[in-house]
């Protein structure tokens, strides 16, 4: 999956040559093959505690996507139909959502620090 994710082209294209990849440290992300992929491709990882959605803006994007895909109680009859809806939703996502999430990170980090790593209102 990592090889298909276009990290090697999209990371530098979107963020410049000094980009850093963010993921939480869930067990699946710490598998030997995953770690080897990042090392072999010289991908810098952000040091990130496991199970900390307050520090992972992608969690908000997944929530937004799920609400959009299943808007008005929409149900899918086929996997292909669901796949198409997910791709369309991702492709048509407003850049303002990404900008808002990115700009909110300093406040979120500040609150996590003030709560000594405890739960925040995010």
Automatic annotation (TrEMBL):
It comes from the Eukaryota. It holds the Pfam family DDE_3. One of its GO terms (molecular function) is nucleic acid binding. InterPro entries: RNaseH_sf, Tc1-like_DDE_dom. Residues 19-82 form the Tc1-like transposase DDE domain. This is Tc1-like transposase DDE domain-containing protein. It comes from Poecilia mexicana.
């Amino acid at each position: 999956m990592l090889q298909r994710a276009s990290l090697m082209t999209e990371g530098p294209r979107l963020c410049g040559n000094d980009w850093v990849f963010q993921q939480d440290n869930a067990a699946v992300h710490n598998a030997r093959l995953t770690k080897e992929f990042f090392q072999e491709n010289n991908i810098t990882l952000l040091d990130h505690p496991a199970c900390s959605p307050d520090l992972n803006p992608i969690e908000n994007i997944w929530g937004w996507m799920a609400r959009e895909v299943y808007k008005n109680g929409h149900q899918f009859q086929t996997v292909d139909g669901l796949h198409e809806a997910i791709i369309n939703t991702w492709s048509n996502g407003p850049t303002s959502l990404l900008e808002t999430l990115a700009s909110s990170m300093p406040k979120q980090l500040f609150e996590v620090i003030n709560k000594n790593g405890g739960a925040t209102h995010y």
